[in-house]
Design a protein that fits this description.
By secondary structure, the chain is an alpha+beta fold. It is built from five helices and 14 strands. The mean pLDDT is 91.
């Protein structure tokens, strides 16, 4: 066994577990000791093996990316309770709480109050933004509690150097920092009130006019891009 690599040892351990033809396979951080590249390779390989064998698998992991890559259904646990259960898309796109929203992936959060709530749309006023938030559906808040949190993923917060021509869902800002991550860059934009927000910009073109450090920009988003969460 000592002559085997980390990935080979994981494969042997999995084969020994599956040799007994279990009805349920329990895995606890099975790839925690592997480096990132090998872990990514093993994730896809493990999913393929489990699907081929046809065994139900329950896996515990603290790696959100691993859970999103491997699972058909994810259960987010907090203090011994299930905060939300659903497909990776459900968990990421429609979280039911701020806890789940912050646990999976990066997110921009804005505190605000619902000032108009109709069946087809709602308006939210946030002190952290210059313009009101327009949501393309009603949010059904109670009469007593109109305070909410608006969650917006960085890939859905867009950057432009030209002022948007619509009334809602944008704000002025200044590029505070840029992190180049290969396939995309993370733009950290400081809003007039001092809040920092993140925007993911794909590095599809090697050249072209793009904002840089200190540039004045505008951030904006579509009316169905965010999620309204109860505070």
């Amino acid at each position: 066994p000592h002559q085997l690599s980390g990935g080979q040892r994981q494969r042997v351990a999995l084969a020994r577990s599956l040799a007994k033809k279990p009805k349920l396979l329990l895995l606890d951080e099975p790839m925690g000791a592997l480096d990132k590249k090998l872990r990514s390779q093993m994730q896809l390989e493990l999913v393929e093996i489990i699907e081929r064998v046809g065994v139900t698998c329950v896996m515990v992991t603290h790696d959100q990316e691993e859970a999103m890559t491997m699972a058909e259904r994810i259960a987010i646990m907090h203090l011994g309770w299930i905060a939300q259960i659903g497909s990776p898309i459900d968990i990421y796109e429609t979280p039911t709480s701020r806890l789940v929203c912050e646990f999976i992936g990066s997110v921009n959060l804005f505190e605000g109050d619902v000032i108009e709530d109709m069946e087809a749309h709602a308006l939210i006023r946030s002190p952290e933004l210059e313009r009101n938030i327009y949501v393309g559906h009603g949010v059904s808040t109670s009469v007593e509690d109109k305070h909410i949190t608006y969650a917006l993923r960085p890939e859905k917060l867009l950057i432009t150097t030209e002022q948007p021509g619509f009334e809602y869902n944008w704000s002025r800002g200044k590029v505070h920092d840029i992190a180049y991550l290969g396939g995309h860059s993370v733009f950290y934009v400081e809003l007039p009130g001092g809040k920092l927000v993140q925007s993911f910009v794909a590095n599809a073109e090697r050249q072209g006019a793009r904002p840089t450090w200190g540039d004045e920009v505008y951030v904006w988003w579509e009316d169905d891009s965010g999620v309204v969460l109860r505070s």
